[in-house]
Design a protein that fits this description.
The chain is α/β, with parallel strands linked by helices. The chain is globular. The longest helix is centred in the last third of the chain and has 24 residues. The strands form 2 sheets. The chain has a 5-stranded parallel β-sheet with strand order 2-3-1-4-8. It starts with a strand and ends with a helix. It contains 8 helices and 8 strands; from the N terminus they run E-H-E-H-H-H-E-H-E-H-E-E-E-H-E-H.
Length: 210
């Protein structure tokens, strides 16, 4: 079984590309955040263990995350591998992952920090349907009205501000730079320029998987 790892800074467009990769390859998308929430909601043993950490505001330990992944890889749709979205984040996580599944490709979507700040700080969503807009790149066709549901109320996340985004980017670079080098040393890292149109990024990702 061989899996794919997809990572990149917040706002790099991982969600969009993950969906496209899943459609093209048939590999199920595995997000540890989604898995944690699902396990907690289902009341599984691992979910209850994770909930103790989450309720106390602590980070869920790598060991608990790995248990979730082992359980996920035993499901029928994962027999040919999965696409990990946002995991691993550190070298110890990557080392643990290498012991339970084979990773054939690691896709790093790279976008300059200044562009990330511009992307995230300009985001807002329709309060009713959740469609995502951007003040510069994707504004509604009619000012103040959603293109999809005609509602005129929008939400902007409180943490979508420059100070918070720069802090998140600093944490990302601290964790992920060593991880990228680790995978590069194994010859499976593919750096993709994420500061282009969505279709071009998708095409380069799919080429790298061949």
């Amino acid at each position: 079984m061989e899996s794919i790892v997809l990572f990149g800074p917040p706002g790099a467009g991982k969600g969009t590309q993950a969906q496209r990769i899943t459609e093209k390859t048939g590999l199920p998308q595995v997000s540890t955040g989604d898995m944690l929430r699902a396990a907690v909601a289902a009341g599984t043993q691992t979910g209850l263990e994770a909930k103790e950490y989450m309720d106390s505001g602590k980070l869920v330990p790598d060991g608990v995350i790995i248990k979730l992944i082992v359980d996920r890889l035993m499901e029928a749709d994962a027999k040919n591998g999965v696409m990990f979205d946002g995991f691993p984040r550190t070298i110890p996580q990557a080392e643990a992952l290498s012991k339970i599944t084979s990773v054939s490709h690691v896709i790093s979507i790279e976008v300059p920090d200044a562009k990330i700040v511009e992307r995230i700080c300009g985001r807002f969503t329709c309060k009713a349907c959740g469609f995502v807009y951007h003040e510069v790149f994707n504004p509604p066709r009619s000012v103040g009205k959603c293109d999809h549901c005609d509602i005129s109320e929008f939400n902007k996340r409180a943490d979508d501000n420059e100070e918070t985004v720069m802090s998140r980017l600093a944490a990302y670079h601290e964790q992920t730079s060593p991880l990228a080098e680790w995978y590069m040393s194994k010859g499976i890292l593919h750096a993709i320029d994420g500061d282009r149109d969505i279709d071009s990024i998708t095409q380069d990702i799919l080429k790298s998987l061949n």
